[in-house]
Amino acid sequence: MSGMLTELRERRPLVHCMTNIVVANFQANGLLALGASPVMADAPEEVEEMASAASCTVLNIGTLRLGTLEAMEMAGRAANGAGKPVVLDPVGAGATRFRREAVSRLLGAMEIMLIRCNAGELAAIAGVDWQASGVDAGQGEMDVEAVAAQVARKHGCLVAVTGQTDVLADGERTVRISGGHPVMSRITGAGCLLSAVCGAFLAAGNDPFRAVATALAFYKAAGGRAAEKSSLPGSFLPAFIDQMALLEDKDLTVPEPEKEVRA
Ligand SMILES: Nc1ncnc2c1ncn2[C@@H]1O[C@H](COP(=O)(O)OP(=O)(O)O)[C@@H](O)[C@H]1O
Ligand SMILES: Cc1ncsc1CCOP(=O)(O)O
Ligand SMILES: [Mg+2]
Question: Where are the domains of the chain?
Answer without folding.
Answer: 4-220
